[in-house]
Design brief:
single chain; mainly alpha; two-stranded antiparallel sheet; about 65% helix
Length: about 260
């Protein structure tokens, strides 16, 4: 159809115009504005706090202490975000980050992150997601994928039941071939960025390896090709590959007097 080419060209122009660079130098597609995503993050964080019970004040102070030490070493543009962290009462070993600088940690994860340095690996990782614009990239990738599938379906005339089945298969292919691997790339990148951040703040980066050893002992995973996260073993390999550089940053931070002391409840 004649209108297919203009739509495809428009999508290409938008894609090229929206390319940015991540903290590790990787090219990114970011179609959303920061203000849009930050507002979405603020609203989602408010909803989390309504829906999930908060942990005690000692847990809140502990997580805030670790987060403050890391945020203090961010570049000024990133440091000025509305960074907030909350600890929620939940047995799930989980943490999350939202656009705008909103973070949550479950008490179940504090059972696995047994030291301040191990918690710093978690918090650094979540901050890494935020400053690398991973939420923007995921939304943008999903939008672009849906547009491509829609254009492909129209161009191929797949209107009947067989066409719908094929489009369903294409959607599955997009899910496991594009969207999930992209999420794994985000997780690996956040590991690298988080390792740097915790080291710059004076937390021992070797604790990130101990954290994932603890996670490995905590339970299994789905097959990696069906998961949004790399396997524990792959994550540890990636962290180990960056450890020499991280230890240098850690030693420099300690020499500069950055020795965080966050008492564990």
């Amino acid at each position: 159809m004649r209108w297919i080419r203009p739509i495809a060209m428009t999508a290409l122009v938008l894609t090229l115009a929206a390319c940015t660079t991540s903290p590790t130098g990787r090219q990114q597609l970011t179609l959303m504005s920061d203000s849009q995503l930050n507002e979405m993050g603020r609203e989602a964080f408010a909803q989390y706090q309504q829906d999930l019970p908060a942990a005690g004040q000692a847990h809140q102070r502990y997580a805030q202490c670790v987060a403050n030490a890391i945020v203090a070493e961010l570049p000024e543009r990133e440091r000025d975000k509305d960074w907030q962290i909350r600890v929620f009462e939940s047995e799930q070993a989980n943490a999350f980050a939202l656009p705008g600088g909103y973070m949550g940690v479950n008490t179940g994860l504090l059972d696995i992150a047994k030291t301040q340095d191990q918690l710093a690996a978690v918090v650094g990782h979540e901050i890494g997601h935020v400053i690398a614009n991973h939420a923007n990239e995921r939304v943008s990738t999903h939008t672009s994928t849906q547009l491509a599938l829609s254009v492909l379906g129209s161009a191929s005339g797949m209107q009947g039941q067989g066409g719908q089945q094929l489009m369903g298969a294409l959607g599955l292919g997009a899910q496991y071939g594009i969207l999930l691997p992209f999420s794994r790339r985000h997780e690996s990148e956040a590991d690298v960025v988080g390792l740097r951040l915790m080291a710059d703040a004076g937390f021992d980066p070797r604790a990130s390896l101990a954290l994932w050893e603890n996670m490995s002992a905590n339970g299994g995973q789905p097959p990696e090709w069906m998961s949004t996260h790399p396997s524990h073993g792959q994550r540890m390999q990636g962290l180990q590959a960056q450890m020499g550089s991280a230890m240098s940053r850690y030693e420099q931070a300690r020499q500069a007097g950055r020795t965080p002391n966050c008492p564990r409840p």
